[in-house]
Amino acid sequence: MSAAEKLAGKFIVIEGLEGAGKSTAISYIAKWLALQNMPAEQITYTREPGGTELAERMRDIVKMEVQGEDLEDKAELLLMYAARVQLVEHIIKPAQNNQHIVVGDRHNWSSLAYQGGGRGIDLQLIEDIKQVSLGEFNADFTLFLDIDPELGLSRARGRGELDRIERLAIDFFERTRQVFLQLTDAEQKAVKIDASQTPEIVEKAIFKQLDNWLASL
Ligand SMILES: Nc1ncnc2c1ncn2[C@@H]1O[C@H](COP(=O)(O)OP(=O)(O)O)[C@@H](O)[C@H]1O
Ligand SMILES: [Mg+2]
């Protein structure tokens, strides 16, 4: 089987804190996929939350600031899963059925890390909501870009003003990072990349991990 045939129908996810370099990593993955002769029209890119019309509206609600009404942590969590269900059912699964490879900028781990680690919602409760929403649907391979939150935020700041979530305290992001690290340790189909390195080194590390994963398929 050719590399492109092996990759067809797979779902790769990039996870990491703000400013870790996820968007940058997607461009490296696109480059790697081209090297595997994966046709560009057979690649679907997603970002979460969002990616369908309704999911994008849910994303807007999560980012919205309303005078006198806080978004409750559990409402935020459920909106994330509502958006994810829309994306998985309307975009990701149909793309996989059409032999696309799907490259996701964030997926399920972000809910465990941010709403669980960051906000402090019980991780088992989030796992239960995941089961109800998505069942056994999971990424085939996850690249976790690990970065010190201070460095990530300083990179993100260079990009413009911080939004409501990005302004939260550094210890929120440190707790978030710890959950990402635990998830990566516990999952065989996931790897950690030291995202504090130069873009050239990060790119090389991503290529190497993708080569190893492809060899295992
Ligand atoms: N390895 C790196 N070293 C230094 N700066 C980086 C690196 N990777 C990305 N950047 C820069 O940091 C900023 C955030 O990167 P980005 O890919 O948008 O992160 P994310 O999508 O995870 O928030 C961008 O300005 C990007 O050019
Ligand atoms: Mg990004």
UniProtKB/TrEMBL annotation:
<keyword id="KW-0545">Nucleotide biosynthesis</keyword>
<keyword id="KW-0418">Kinase</keyword>
<keyword id="KW-0808">Transferase</keyword>
<feature type="domain" description="Thymidylate kinase-like">
    <location>
        <begin position="14"/>
        <end position="206"/>
    </location>
</feature>
<protein>
    <recommendedName>
        <fullName>Thymidylate kinase</fullName>
        <ecNumber>2.7.4.9</ecNumber>
    </recommendedName>
</protein>
<dbReference type="InterPro" id="IPR027417">
    <property type="entry name" value="P-loop_NTPase"/>
</dbReference>
<feature type="binding site">
    <location>
        <begin position="16"/>
        <end position="23"/>
    </location>
    <ligand>
        <name>ATP</name>
    </ligand>
</feature>
<keyword id="KW-0547">Nucleotide-binding</keyword>
<comment type="function">
    <text>Phosphorylation of dTMP to form dTDP in both de novo and salvage pathways of dTTP synthesis.</text>
</comment>
<dbReference type="InterPro" id="IPR018095">
    <property type="entry name" value="Thymidylate_kin_CS"/>
</dbReference>
<dbReference type="Pfam" id="PF02223">
    <property type="entry name" value="Thymidylate_kin"/>
</dbReference>
<keyword id="KW-0067">ATP-binding</keyword>
<comment type="similarity">
    <text>Belongs to the thymidylate kinase family.</text>
</comment>
<dbReference type="InterPro" id="IPR039430">
    <property type="entry name" value="Thymidylate_kin-like_dom"/>
</dbReference>
<dbReference type="InterPro" id="IPR018094">
    <property type="entry name" value="Thymidylate_kinase"/>
</dbReference>
<dbReference type="GO" id="GO:0016301">
    <property type="term" value="F:kinase activity"/>
</dbReference>
